[in-house]
Amino acid sequence: MTDYRKILMLRSMGCSQREMxxxxxxxxxxxxxxxxxxxxxxxxxxxDDDITNADLERLLFPNKYKNACxxxxxxxxxxxxxxxxxxxxxxxxxxEYRSKCYETGKTPYMSTQFGDKYRxxxxxxxxxxxxxxxxxxxxxxxxxxxxIPIYDSVTGQQSSAYxxxxxxxxxYYAYTEACADMKTENWLNCHVHAFNYFGGVTRxxxxxxxxxxxxxxxxxxxxxxRSYQELADYYGTAxxxxxxxxxxxxxxxxxxxxFAETWIIAALRDRKFFSLQEVNEAVAEKLEELNGRExxxxxxxxxxxxxxxxxxxxxxxxxxxFESAVWSVAxxxxxxxxxxxxxxxxxxxxxxxxxxxxxxxxxxVEVYYHGSRVASHRRLQTLQRDxxxxxxxxxETHQKYLTYNEDDFKVWAMSVGPMTEHVVDFFLESGKAxxxxxxxxxxxxxxxxxxxKERLESACARVHAYGTTPSIRxxxxxxxxxxDVKAKxxxxxxxxxxxxxxxxxxxxxxxxxxxxxx
Length: 518
Description:
CATH topology of the largest domain: Nucleotidyltransferase, domain 5
Shape: elongated
CATH superfamily of the largest domain: Ribonuclease H-like superfamily/Ribonuclease H
Number of domains: 4
Distance between the termini: 167 Å
Radius of gyration: 44 Å
CATH architecture of the largest domain: 2-Layer Sandwich
C-alpha cells in the first residue's frame, strides 16, 4: 500500500514530487493526486498516530474501493455542518443516515462506527471550526492583558483602564468596555452591558477563574462568587468556568482578546485620554469597526454572522435590567459599623463580633445574618466623614447620649444643689463649645445615680474646697473613698464635742437681774 503518511510528512518538509519519485516513495502522478486531494479536504501534517494509511486512502480516494465496500460511506462534511445547528446530535444524524440507506437498499454503519469514523475524519481534517459552538449557546468572557493609559489633566499622573471582552464563539460577535478596575461591581456591570449589546442571553456563560467569578475551582468542586451567581440566576443562564490553566476551554475569548488588543488597544496607542468616558467613546468606535471587519477565511463579518446565524437563538432579556449587587463577608467591630468600601453603616449592636453578609447595590446597602436581613441603608454616593447610623441599632446608653443638651444638664444640676451647678457650668464653659463638656456632664449624672444626689453635692463641695478646676476623676475618687461621708461625720462630731465641753451656758438676760431667778 502507498505510504500516504510519509508523502504528507515529506511534503511538509518541502520535498517535491520529482524527489519522491527519485527516492521510490511514490510516482509523480500519485504524489500529485495526494497533494491536490489533501489540499481540497484540508488534510495536512502532522497527523495523529492512530491515523493509518488505510484510513487516509479511504478519505483521499473513497471511490477506489466503492464497489468492494459493503457499507455506505457517510457525508462527513454534511455531518460537520449540521452539528453546528442547535439540538443536532450524532445520534440524530445517524438515524437519518440509516433511514436513507435502508430506503435505497444499502447497508449503513452502526452508530458506534458512524461516530468513530466521523471523529477520525474531524481529527484528520482538523475540522474543529464550530463543532462545539452552537448558535446562541454560550458567551465567553475575559479581561484583556494590556491596559489603556489615562492621564490626569492637572497633575499628568497616569492610571490604567482595563478592557473587558465578551464574545459569542459561534459568530465571534464581540463586546468590549473599559473600566477603572477589575473589581466585582465593574465585572457585573460589564456583563449586563454585554447582554444588552447582544440583545439577548445565552444558555451558558464561560468565564476565567478570576476571583470575581469563582471562589475556588478544583477537580471535584466549583464554588462561584455569590454576586456572579445572583446575576446568572436573574438572566437564566448557567456559569461553567474554564478549567484552571486551560485557555482552550474559552479559545474564542482568548482569540478575541488578542484581536481586541490589536484592533482596539494598539490602534489607540497614539491617542491621549483624560477620562474613562473618553476611553469608552473611542473603544465603542473601534468595536464597531472590529465587528464590521470582513472574515479572512469565510464570507461576511462578525455582525452579519451574528444577525444571520445566531441572533434568533438567543434567550430573551428580562423585562427590567439587573441591578448588580456585590456580596462580601464582614466581622462586626466594636463600633457596630460595616463598610461598602467607602462609607460606613450601622448594624444592631448585639451582632458585635459576629460575621455578617453585606450586599451592596448602586443605591442600597443591606446586611444579612444567617440568611435574615438585619439592616438596610440607602447607599451614600459621595465620601462622608460621619457614618450612617440608625438609632435602633445603638445600645440604650448610646441612644441616651444623643439626647444630651446643655439646658437638660443645667436643670438636672439645679435639682442636685448649688455646688453641682458650679461643676456643671465649669464643664460646659471650659471648652470652645458646650458639646465638649457633654461627656463629663453625662459621667456626673451617672455618679449621681450611683451614689445619690446628696453625696454628689457633698463631693462637689469638697472638690471646690480643694481648687477651682473640678474633674470627674477627683469627684469619683472622693465618692469611692467616702471622703464626703467622713467629712460630714467629722463636722457633726466636732459640734457635739463643743456642746459637751461648755455645758449649758446662761445668756445675758440672766445676769441682767443680778443672777437671780424670778
